[in-house]
Amino acid sequence: MGRSLMKYSGIRSVLLVTAVLTLLQTAAIIGAAYWLAETISALFAGEPLARQAWSMLLFLLAFAARHVMTTLQQKAAYRFASATSAAMRRELMEKLFRLGPRFSSVKGTGNLVTLALEGVTMFRSYLELIIPRMAGTAVIPAIVLGYVYWLDVRSGIILTLTMPILIVFMVLIGLAARKGMEAQWESYRSLSNHFVDSLRGLETLKFLGQSRAHASMIARVSDKYRAATMRTLRVAFLSSFALDFFTMLSVASVAVNLGLRLVNGEIMLFPALTVLILAPEYFLPVRMVGADYHATLNGKEAGEAIQAIIDEPLDDEPARMLKQKVETPVAENVGSMAGALPFARYAAAEKPTVSLTLSSVSVQHEAEGACSLKDISLHIKGPARIGIIGASGAGKSTLIDVLSGFKTPSGGTMNWSGMPSGSEGNDGGWRSGITYIPQQPYIFSSSLADNIRFYMPDASDEAVRGAAAAAGLAELAGQLPQDIHEMIGGGGRPLSGGQAQRVALARAFLGGRPVVMLDEPTAHLDIETEYELKEQMLQLFRNKLVFLATHRLHWMPDMDHIIVLRQGMVAETGTHEQLLARRGVYYEMMTAQQEGLH
Amino acid sequence: MKSRESWLAPYVARYFWQFAIIVGLGAIALLSAGALMFTSGALISKSALRPENILMVYVPIVGVRTFGITRAVIHYIERLTGHHVILRILSGMRVRLYRILEPQALFLSSRFRTGDLLGVLADDVEQLQNVYLRTIFPAAASLVIYAAIVIMLGTFDWGFAIAAALYMGFLLIVLPCISLLLTHRKNRAVKRERSHLYQKLTDAVLGMADWTLSGRHAGFIRSYEEDEAAVARKDAGLRSWARWRVLIGQMTVGLAVVTTLYWAGGQYEQQLLSAPMIAAFVLAVFPVMDVFLPLSDAVERIPQYRSSYDRLHDITARGGGDDGNSVAAGGHSGADSRMMKDAAAAAKGQAPISFHNVSHRYSEAEPWTVRELSLHIPQGHRIAVLGRSGAGKSTLLKLLQGALIPGRGAVTINGVSAAQYGEDIPRIVSVLNQSPHLFDTSIAHNIRLGRRDATDEEVRQAAKAVMLDEMIQSLPLGYDTPMHEAGRRFSGGERQRVALARILLQDTPVVVLDEPTVGLDPMTERELLSTIFRTLEGRTLIWVTHHLVGADQMNEIVFMDGGRITMQGSHAELMNHHPHYQRLYRLDRPGAPAREKRLSEIV
User: What kind of membrane protein is this, topologically (chain B) (predicted)?
Assistant: First the structure.
């Protein structure tokens, strides 16, 4: 378990410190046993109590020193563990941002958040436990045993023999328990899941008229679960039973053996007492490892899961791969004006001339798998409205992801020109020219105003209000008790799908970026909301380079240019009228929607 | 405080004797460790006196061996018994929680919007086992040992018994109390700040596209790390105290050993104690004090349980009376219930629905969600309901299912008030909503939930009707394939088909379709809708929808806004008289019919 530990920075010094502290601690343990045995045997021999003050004091000091050492060890381990786990979390966060939103949605948001919070904490406890335990098991038993041998060889032999037996039994029982678990894993999983599954399906059960009767089912499955758990526990607890049993038996054997030899006069009281006091200390480090086994295992696994994400290969660096040409910073002044001016001014500002060239861009998810985009070549000059359509799985979202920089193509090149330069670092300055509106925009847990000015944190309230009005949010804001400063999102008032979409739209209005990407922005909304939003979105599209991927064909007549995708390739391009005249894929899609249900 | 006990006190009373046994066993196991060292010390000192006969040390030898074995064996038994009883209590708690939640089933999703509260509640119940296993049982066992040892020592020497009582009492009571006082507030602060971090991180992960594109992600990471560092500082404070606490505890042990030495030596000098007893008493101090050391930790856990208790308590409190009005009474008295059964049986064949001038609001303070709504739906009629979110559609459905009782007006099915059907309503109305739950059992079981006594053949027929039979047959285990495996292979449309098969078996005259096609692509949507309309021929359909695809298949289309019906009529009527409807319809059918001409002109 130790090898993977060695790669953390600072591990050597903390191990060294812990080792030195453990050595001192062992000396203190032996010292405490020595002086305690000495005091007892002196009293036993009839020496007066008053003469024992010195050895009693020495015992107390040694005993205190031992525990001070423990405290210092823990402190050193804690310091190292929190620094290391914090560094790991930072790396994880950086990496998550570099891997981008697609990775997060594949892995599951809940999983990642839990990993970053709970996982890191578990990993910290693992480090915190493992370092003193490693030093403890390596140093204490060996030295204590050596001292016992020096005092009394026979006791030494008993202790030596017990340790391997103890460990073998512990491991064997552990393996048996795991095997038992694995054998009934499937039924165990479904039993343990049954209750939460029932609660989640409560509404469905109610609709089916089964919810009342289901209570007895819960009782029955709970009982089965209990029986299964008890079967497992009977074996699992055996492991700590073995630990207990052999330790106690060994101490008892040492005691009886010493007693018998004392009767025969083969050994003196003082060494016998010392051995007896040291015997439990000999086993203590191993018992502690056993007690912390599960905590360390969980922490180790959490650490590995985090490391796996950190080591996740980036497709490659977007900045390096995509040769970006930032030629004319036309839109730059637009950005800097936004804070000061109500949005209406710059909506009508100079036309940004952004252009995009894709040459044979392909996206392949797995090395062997099929391409989700194949050999896409395009040249587009803005402002223009580009519709992207196709059946599900044709590659619409993938294309939007590539254009927005969330996905790096596995082949081909993409060139943006005329985008605002700058923004942060080298990972795609062109991104700061893009507004992205997904199907379900995320609403942050903050005020409505801060949500709207997410892309423009310095925008004035006045500008925010302007954008909100343009996106059709004025009415909502008017109804809120705190107007645009009302808290929304996870920690505040929840928004409907249409309202969330309007917030995204307001962000886009306020941001005034020259390129807008939309991925199925209205399909999930009710048709009246969709109708209104469409009007407002068309306002946003003016003088911008817009890419709109959707199933909803009603958008197409409003597009200047339509790209029809089929199986990851461009099937045809043209205007609505041109494509209808071609009687190709587009015409088929249109006519399919003309027909009623059958 | 009292209600918090309701998830604790009743169980202590009911399982008192089992608990007593567990605590007793725990005490014996812990005492055995002390007794082992006591007899060992006595044994070797007695042996050191070199008795003539080995039989003189026979008793301590037997004692040592016995205690060496009992400690491990009893501890094992105690843990098993403890878990056995606790798991039984948990079974009861699960059923109890379920029974509390069951009547509110239809309101759960709207009430607990944030997160997966149901999952959290299930975890809370699991968490309660730690209250017993980690806190109550060890604390009770320590108390027993405390009393036993003080009484035992009292038979030797009252003075020393009091000293021992003080030492042990310090570890048993004083240190845990100090610890709780010192850490209580900080623990709460850490917990609060961590939940804030949770929210912040969720914001980061879900809103990642926005952070990245806005170029603000570096700033976010910085601010997040600052917050983490603040929590880490508080946590470090707590940990530092924990280390001090252990050190203080151990120092107490050291002093107790010295005190015992001093006392035993003094007693021996006065010939009140025999020589072997010195080692016996002194060596026993370590394992005995070890019993009390972990208690501070056990007590510090108490605040951790609190949120679990509070949530369960909240649910319990809500379970009693609902939001003031309107929730249908679940049970009927005997005669009443039989009458309703007859009414349900009668409605099984013919279930005309009537909303007569219905208004409803959730409380006096809130606005009306449905206003003066009248609607008559004869058996076999198909009606589509459209409207924005908050237009009153879901209230309308709850009124129909009898889950809400209208504040004014009446909702009747076959002439009987909908709420009166109570538990029998699923025999008349079935529901296919946006995300029907597929349970973690086999596919066959999931379909059979529609009617428990359905034969295998009926299940197959239902699957065939929804065009899943072939797909299911192709799975390795066929109909016995576990859902959680099949679920991964099932697309959104196929999952809806499983739920539809369930509804076919449920065989009700009225079927509510609550946006079953949201999130499906147009092809899948159209295919699913045609399967739905084909298989549900002859039933009354109440279809809440956001699109107008399939609207022409309906007898009537109703638009709602602000709880009122704003537009109503058949597709043909609406197309002819309402330009707004025409505009909306064109979104779903671009080119039709106004554009149809143009389309054909171009072609």
Answer: Multi-pass membrane protein
Instruction: Give the best residue of B75, B81, B193, B206 to mutate against chain A (max A CB count within 10 A).
Output: B206
* Domain final position from B288, B319, B350: B319
Same domain, B171 and B262: yes
Q: Are the Cβ atoms of B119 and A218 closer than 8 angstroms? A: no
B49 domain residue, yes or no: yes
How far does the CA of residue A423 sit from the closest CA of chain B (Å)? 6
- For chain B, say whether A494 makes contact (Cβ under 8 Å): yes
Residues A253-309 pLDDT 10s: 998 899 989 988 889 999 999 999 999 999 999 888 888 877 788 888 889 889 988
Task: State the nearest Cα–Cα gap between B534 and chain A, in angstroms.
Answer: 9
What is d(CA B403, CA B397) in angstroms, rounded to the nearest whole number?
9
Compute, in degrees rounded to 10, the torsion defined by CA atoms A13, A14, A15, A16: 50
Using CA coordinates, name the residue in chain B closest to A254.
Answer: B40
**Which portions of chain B are predicted below pLDDT 50?**
1-4, 113-115, 320-332, 593-603
Among candidates B96, B322, B122, B109, which has minimal Cα distance to A215? B96
Secondary structure (3-state) at A348 = coil
B589 domain-assigned: yes
Tell me the Cα Rg of chain A.
35
* Secondary structure (3-state) at A425: coil
Taking CB atoms and an 8 Å cut-off, how many pairs form between chains A and B?
430
Statement: residue A324 has pLDDT above 50? no
pLDDT score at A337: 35
Of the candidates B47, B261, B388, which has its C-beta nearest A56's C-beta? B261
Q: What is the pLDDT of residue A84?
A: 93
Overall fold of domain A440-512: Rossmann fold (3.40.50)
Facing residues of A371 across strands? A364
Residues B304 and B359 in one domain: no
Q: Where are the domains of chain A?
A: 3-310, 440-512
Match 């209600």 to its residue by tokens. Answer: B3
Model confidence band, residue A325 (pLDDT cutoffs 50, 70, 90): very low
In a domain, B452, yes or no: no
Contact B589 A593 (CB under 8 A): yes
